[in-house]
Design a protein that fits this description.
Helix content is 33%, strand content 23%. The chain is of the alpha/beta class. The chain has a 5-stranded mixed sheet, with no helix packed on it. Strand 2, helix 1 and strand 3 form a beta-alpha-beta unit. It is globular. The termini are far apart.
Length: 217
């Protein structure tokens, strides 16, 4: 209901999921879709773009996975369960579903400070801590290939204006988008946290608009 994006990157013997949905039910549906795409294989790695409910509350539906997040996101999730639950309910998640998901909330096992390369079997991906910006802990993923793909999380939004909540760091958000553009380059595909895939021009225009909105260069 939030037009949130998840992404699946598949290697020969491992698979990375980027974000897990807003409830355990949604996470289970994503798990089933991923397994269907992979002929019954399971997700082995998860990267969480940032610690907002619509991107992390489905993680417990993926047992046995290795979970990655930007450094510091563990503290936010551990100490902020009540706030996460309340935010989910305010945005339309049924209270029972929000309670269920936050009771079994998964905190990342691996914290990315700079960059972290994951080997998925014949395919590598780069996890990059590019924040803060949309939140205090924004993690992007670069998927190399004949055309680079950058998974942006909510640093980029296509289906509406970028949302800046209380944990946003507006003064550093434009710089985070500059880092995304450095990762992918001019010809890359950029996958927003909400909405359709965009190109570098869209990311650059959103960067300039955020700089104007928040009065930073």
């Amino acid at each position: 209901m939030w037009d949130a994006t998840t992404a699946l990157v598949v290697g020969e013997d491992r698979a990375l999921l980027y974000d897990t949905g807003a409830t355990l039910r949604e996470g289970a549906a994503i798990r089933a879709q991923a397994q269907a795409l992979m002929g019954g294989r399971r997700v082995t790695h998860i990267a969480l773009s940032h610690p907002h409910f619509d991107h992390v509350l489905g993680t417990a539906a993926f047992s046995g996975t290795e979970v990655y997040g930007a450094v510091g996101v563990d503290t936010v999730l551990t100490g902020g369960r009540d706030a996460l639950r309340g935010d989910a309910v305010r945005h339309g998640v049924a209270e029972a579903d929000a309670v269920e998901a936050t009771d079994v909330l998964v905190v990342p096992h691996h914290l990315v400070c700079g960059e972290w390369t994951l080997e998925l079997g014949g395919r590598q991906v780069l996890l990059a801590n590019v924040g803060p910006g949309h939140s205090g802990h924004d993690l992007a993923v670069l998927v190399p290939g004949s055309r680079e793909v950058v998974l942006c999380g909510d640093l980029v939004e296509e289906s509406g204006d970028p949302q800046a909540g209380s944990d946003a760091v507006p003064s550093q958000w434009p710089a985070a988008l500059d880092r995304l553009l450095e990762l992918g380059g001019e010809d890359a595909l950029y996958v927003p946290g909400h909405g359709a895939v965009v190109g570098a021009g869209f990311v650059r225009a959103q960067r300039d608009e955020l700089a104007r909105r928040f009065g930073v260069s």
